[in-house]
């Protein structure tokens, strides 16, 4: 079709009662365009224009604009692994941070994926990325780990991972804590429960003579394994493709074993769970940053230097996926990055707390 170029600076249409007919098409049919191009997007029935880099909506009052869907992944910080003191007292692995997502078919704890969040333009929403629980040095009945911290997007809160139990067989101190996923039991003690629709329970520890064996922390898709001859492995995490690539999050930490026994330390679950320490001179491995993985428990023995530290839980993450017709504004208290996948933008928050809004 021929292009008719108008060279006058002013077009006076004041005597007409009709309207201009714009080029139109779906989001997927957008041309590359040049700055100043205007079209009607038939996907959302809104006029849009091309600036120097991308297509944007014309300004409208927020009250006149319809809400839109935002997919989310919210993973809390993982719990730290427990510790213990000498004589073969092995601790439980930390539980993974709770995992909630609307993207794909499944969410944490074996539940179905949640409904997408309904967002409104020019409205502030809180985002918080939960830190992992800090590791604790061993001491007689003083080596229980720490829970992680919650992660938040708007009304969606994922619960912190539970701490792994102390390896010294000290009753409640040696039990794994409840969390998004529960911490593994240290000594001959139970693991903590997981949170419904977020994660699974930690395993139960064991005792063989004077030796205690730590259990694995729970993960987003599986319970932590019980301690037995070997330390319990951490429960596996859940693979989510919200960024456009499959990434596994929220694996539980491995339970301790090995000192004064023939058993081997537990390994962390897929999705960032830390392995238990493999010698008396080694701390439990930390959960992986921005996965919500639980920290690993420790290996102890009387001839070892003692007072080793359970692994720190991995920090959580918040990821939002939304149509690329929208622009996100992020508060200074958050660390974030934005990429694109097809007709969507994906913003990942890796640290901090503040508010965001869309335009």
Structure keywords:
359 residues; mainly beta; 10-stranded antiparallel sheet; 4-stranded mixed sheet; 18 strands
Q: Any chance you could write out the topology, listing elements then pairs?
A:
Elements: E1 24-25, E2 38-41, E3 46-50, E4 55-57, E5 68-75, E6 99-101, E7 117-119, E8 125-128, E9 151-153, E10 156-158, E11 206-208, E12 211-213, E13 238-240, E14 247-249, E15 317-323, E16 328-330, E17 334-341, E18 344-358
Parallel strand pairs: 1-2
Antiparallel strand pairs: 2-3, 3-4, 5-6, 5-7, 5-15, 8-9, 8-18, 9-10, 11-12, 13-14, 15-18, 16-18, 17-18
User: Secondary-structure element sequence?
Assistant: EEEEEEEEEEEEEEEEEE
Helix content: under 10%
Question: Could you describe the largest sheet, including whether it forms a barrel?
Answer: 10 strands, antiparallel
Q: How far is it from the N-terminal to the C-terminal residue, by CA?
A: 35 Å
Mean pLDDT: 90
Secondary structure class reads: mainly beta
For the secondary structure, the number of strands is: 18
Q: Count every helix, treating DSSP H or I runs of 4 or more residues as helices.
A: 0
Per DSSP, what share of the residues sits in E-state strands of 2 or more residues?
15-25%
**Gross morphology:** rod-shaped
Uncertain parts: none
Give the C-alpha Rg: 26 Å
């Amino acid at each position: 079709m021929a292009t008719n170029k108008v060279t006058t600076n002013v077009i006076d249409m004041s005597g007409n009662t009709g309207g201009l007919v714009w080029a139109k098409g779906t989001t997927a049919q957008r041309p590359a365009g040049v700055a100043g191009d205007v079209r009607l997007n038939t996907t959302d029935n809104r006029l849009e224009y091309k600036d120097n880099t991308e297509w944007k909506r014309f300004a409208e009052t927020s009250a006149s604009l319809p809400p839109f869907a935002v997919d989310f992944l919210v993973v809390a910080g993982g719990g730290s692994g427990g510790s213990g003191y000498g004589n073969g007292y092995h601790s439980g692995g930390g539980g993974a941070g709770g995992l909630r997502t609307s993207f794909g078919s499944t969410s944490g704890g074996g539940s179905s994926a949640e409904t997408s969040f309904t967002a409104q333009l020019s409205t502030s929403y809180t985002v918080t990325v939960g830190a992992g629980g800090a590791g604790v040095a061993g001491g007689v009945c003083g080596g229980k780990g720490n829970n992680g911290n919650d992660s938040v997007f708007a009304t969606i809160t994922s619960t912190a991972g539970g701490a792994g139990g102390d390896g010294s067989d000290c009753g409640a101190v040696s039990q794994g804590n409840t969390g998004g996923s529960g911490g593994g039991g240290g000594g001959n003690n139970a693991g903590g429960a997981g949170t419904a629709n977020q994660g699974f329970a930690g395993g139960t520890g064991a005792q063989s003579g004077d030796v205690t064996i730590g259990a694995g922390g729970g993960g987003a898709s599986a319970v932590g394994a019980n301690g037995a001859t070997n330390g319990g492995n951490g429960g596996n995490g859940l693979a989510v493709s919200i960024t456009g690539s499959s990434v596994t999050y929220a694996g539980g930490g491995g339970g301790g074993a090995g000192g004064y026994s023939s058993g081997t330390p537990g390994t962390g679950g897929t999705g960032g769970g830390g392995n238990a320490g493999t010698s008396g001179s080694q701390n439990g491995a930390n959960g992986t940053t921005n996965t919500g993985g639980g920290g690993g428990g420790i290996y102890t023995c009387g001839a070892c230097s003692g007072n080793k530290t359970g692994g720190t839980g991995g920090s959580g993450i918040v990821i939002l996926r939304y149509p690329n017709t929208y622009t996100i504004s992020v508060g200074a208290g958050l660390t974030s990055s934005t990429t694109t996948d097809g007709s969507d933008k994906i913003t990942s928050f890796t640290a901090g707390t503040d508010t965001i809004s869309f335009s």
